[in-house]
């Protein structure tokens, strides 16, 4: 069997074990058995449990980001690209719950360098969304200039909300799909965020903003 195929099988098995057991409790014996390989071969190909964990995180992050970028086709208008990107994000995390569980839970809880990979994933998605927001604002008729901080803040809020909805789905169904609970579909989750983000963006580019309310000191 080609080495790349064998390594992919090992990573697939490792993602399942890490998602179910957690990094600390995951056993290289269980990973090797699930992959249909010997433990010495797993060590030979992927060096250590820590290296294997890092490989899994990087792979899952790259695949997810690629799915979002591929869905946001450059020939589509900005709002369609954001819609397609959000649907791709939720569809991918729903189809790969174990991969998302490893990214959203295990990687973040074990610090560097694992958390850094997840941070890079988030920055990649944020960059895509900021570009779409700025493009939409630029072509809006008679729109006032959109502050870069507003575009960035809206993008981070949107990504954070998307991550929370994906986490909710994993929490309801479990990484192995055996749990229970009502969660939105990929389309419903994307619609929710579009209603919040795009409607809010339309207000921003039209000059309609939430009025700043200053607190009045007591007794003054």
UniProtKB/TrEMBL annotation:
<dbReference type="Pfam" id="PF21943">
    <property type="entry name" value="TetR_C_46"/>
</dbReference>
<feature type="DNA-binding region" description="H-T-H motif">
    <location>
        <begin position="27"/>
        <end position="46"/>
    </location>
</feature>
<dbReference type="InterPro" id="IPR001647">
    <property type="entry name" value="HTH_TetR"/>
</dbReference>
<feature type="domain" description="HTH tetR-type">
    <location>
        <begin position="4"/>
        <end position="64"/>
    </location>
</feature>
<protein>
    <submittedName>
        <fullName>TetR/AcrR family transcriptional regulator</fullName>
    </submittedName>
</protein>
<keyword id="KW-0238">DNA-binding</keyword>
<dbReference type="Pfam" id="PF00440">
    <property type="entry name" value="TetR_N"/>
</dbReference>
<keyword id="KW-0804">Transcription</keyword>
<dbReference type="InterPro" id="IPR054129">
    <property type="entry name" value="DesT_TetR_C"/>
</dbReference>
<keyword id="KW-0805">Transcription regulation</keyword>
<dbReference type="InterPro" id="IPR050109">
    <property type="entry name" value="HTH-type_TetR-like_transc_reg"/>
</dbReference>
<dbReference type="InterPro" id="IPR009057">
    <property type="entry name" value="Homeodomain-like_sf"/>
</dbReference>
């Amino acid at each position: 069997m080609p080495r790349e195929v064998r390594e992919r099988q090992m990573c697939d098995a490792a993602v399942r074990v890490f998602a179910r057991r957690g990094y600390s409790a995951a056993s290289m014996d269980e990973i090797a058995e699930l992959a249909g390989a010997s433990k010495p071969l797993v060590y030979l190909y992927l060096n250590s449990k820590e290296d294997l964990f890092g490989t899994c995180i990087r792979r899952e992050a790259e695949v997810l980001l690629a799915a979002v970028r591929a869905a946001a086709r450059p020939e589509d208008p900005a709002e369609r690209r954001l819609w397609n990107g959000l649907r791709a994000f939720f569809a991918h995390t729903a189809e790969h719950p174990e991969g998302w569980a490893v990214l959203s839970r295990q990687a973040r809880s074990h610090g560097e360098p694992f958390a850094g990979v997840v941070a890079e994933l988030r920055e990649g998605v944020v960059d895509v969304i900021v570009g779409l927001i700025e493009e939409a604002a630029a072509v809006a008729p008679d729109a006032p200039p959109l502050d870069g901080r507003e575009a960035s803040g809206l993008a981070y809020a949107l990504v954070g909300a998307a991550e929370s909805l994906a986490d909710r789905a994993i929490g309801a169904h479990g990484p192995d799909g055996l749990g229970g609970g009502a969660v939105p579909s990929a389309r419903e989750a994307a619609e929710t965020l579009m209603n919040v983000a795009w409607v809010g963006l339309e207000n921003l580019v039209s000059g309609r903003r939430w009025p700043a309310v200053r607190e009045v000191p007591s007794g003054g």
